[in-house]
Amino acid sequence: MRQRLKPWMLPIAMLAGIVFHDFMGKIEFIAPYLIFIMLFITFCRVRPSEFRVTALSWGLLSVQVIGAVALYFSLLPFSTDLAQGTFICVFCPTATAAPVITGMLGGSVPRLATFSIISNITVAILAPIFFTLMGSKADIPFMETLTTISAKVMPLIILPLILAIILLKVAPKVHHAVADRQAVSFYIWAVSLFIVVGRAVSFVMDEPAEAVPEMMLLAILSGIVCCLQFWIGRKIGRRCGDRIAGAQGLGQKNTVLAIWMALTYLHPVSSVAPAAYVAWQNTINSAQLYFKTRRDSQMAK
């Protein structure tokens, strides 16, 4: 029953977020804590001996960073909001639940978990710099903005990794127990999705009618970017021996973190892009899980 329900958990969470968006203001403060817990569980999945930076990691990372910057500057002459929205959809790190989905689809969990760590550390280092240069708050000095963003973003991503390493050294049995509970991050992700989608919907509902065309364009662009990232990731993964890990590593994003960062540090309307990305990527994930489950059932007969 739980396996049958799993492919539908994410659409249910999104739909619930849309329906109950008016209540998100009371619980949105827990979103960063949920992100922290998800990252911690994911980082416990990789032992130091399994941490190997391969060609797959470098290929996916180059698209994540260089591709994001290229898209930003390509769209900046047309609209700052479009540029920021598409940027965050590519620059955002791999989803904490991506290793779980990868394992369910038959890909290499350690390889993707390793890339997840690299992807998140890269964002922790570069996000404060990029967000400061994008300058949504031009009246604040560069170094003050950089320090403020760094103090909020870096601990959120780096501390779970440090805690996972310390736990491995101090209490290996507990570390092993956490590592074996990767499915928990999937359900935490669903709760986080419920919150951030509701928060994004509340913001969209408050926007004036004249902003609707731009928001629709952001949603369309995020869909194009989503499909391209799954496709490019699969191409890179095929060359490196794991097309599933490649596709999920580049295409499946931590949209919870992306929406939170967009609402906090970029122009809030840019959050429509990662909010729409939630629907696009989870439609793809749900379809993949459905067809994989159906194939497995047919083979078992």
UniProtKB/TrEMBL annotation:
Statement: the UniProt record of this protein carries the keyword Endoplasmic reticulum: no
Transmembrane annotation, as ranges: 7-24, 30-46, 58-76, 82-105, 112-133, 153-171, 183-203, 215-233
Keywords: Membrane, Transmembrane, Transmembrane helix
Source species, domain of life: Bacteria
Name this polypeptide is given: Transporter
Transmembrane helix as UniProt keyword: yes
